Amino acid sequence: MSSLAERIAIPKRQPSQQPGDTRVARRARARLWDRIMTGVLWGIAGLLTLVLAYFILFTLYQGLGVLNWQFLTGANTAGTLDGPEFFNTFYILALALLIAVPLGLSGAIYLVEYARQGILTTILRFATETLAGVPSIVLGLFGFLVFVTANGSGTRLGFSRLAGALTLVILNLPLILRVSEDALRSVAPELREASTALGANKFQTIVRVMLPAALPALTTGIILTAGKMLGETAALIYTTGGNSPATGWFSLNPLLPGDTLAVHIYFLKSEGVIANASQIANGTAALLILLLLIFNLGIRSLANVLIRRVSGRKA
After folding, report:
1. Spatial separation of the C-alpha atoms in residues 94 and 162, rounded to whole Å
2. What's the rounded Cα separation, in Å, for the pair 291 and 155?
3. How far, in Å, CA of 223 to CA of 128, rounded?
4. CA 240 to CA 17: how far, in whole Å?
5. Pick from 189, 187, 169, 166: which is nearest to 177 by CA?
6. Which of 123, 129, 233, 241 is deepest in the core (most CB within 10 A)?
7. How far apart are CA 310 and CA 315, in angstroms?
8. How far, in Å, CA of 72 to CA of 28, rounded?
9. Could you give the CA distance from residue 52 to residue 61 in angstroms, rounded to a whole number?
10. Could you state, in chain order, the average pLDDT of each consecutive group of 10 residues for the chain (315 residues)?
11. Any idea what DSSP says for residue 18?
């Protein structure tokens, strides 16, 4: 006769899931989501790259057929892209960088190495970020009132290259200041401490240790700033003038008026007073893109040579 326990069906208790199995499942799900999100990010990056490549190639396709030697070096006649715009673009860029880079780098050195961190530095950084967010056309009007005219009633510098360069300095100074400050802060503190331990003063440490170590990041910031200056339009419309003199434009006189390539494109597209304005604008845009590529690659190559010689390591 079977026992009472055998006659009553008692269900067996199922073993509970072990903690180790839970961790394995969670790791598997985490790896799956990591692969999915990685694929999504790569897809977004690839899509943005394709859009940018299409924009560049389409602009070059539309404009390269227009470029020729006469287009680049001919006399400055109506509706023709010639030497003046090409020369003014790099002249204003060089003039603006000669003013903005020393100011921005000096301000960054002061904020990082000399300024006591407190309310004053907080106000300075807040003012810098606020200035960086001001639209360029607003600063262009500011440059017109301050540099071109005497508050709109008189004449100071007039429409000139110098007025445009000073406006570009105000527009891009926050970027140079922030990039330089971040570059100096990225230098390892051990380098500063080692220099001090060897008996170097603060100035020697900054010049011989901090700046060479931060040179790669500083170079990148200057290249980005220069590229932004090359393509700037709104800040120069009201300061450099809409055209260049027919003769005497190949001069280092900063008080001469002179439009840049970007400003030239703007007036061709907005006014279009000549029959082939669209074709000339396409050629100007293609030339500007080529100049940006050549300028960035050239400056990067020169910077790599300088970095190897100053810091003793490959950039």
Report:
1. 11
2. 34
3. 20
4. 76
5. 169
6. 241
7. 11
8. 61
9. 14
10. 52 54 82 92 94 89 77 53 78 92 91 83 85 87 89 83 92 90 88 85 86 86 87 87 71 84 83 73 84 83 77 56
11. P
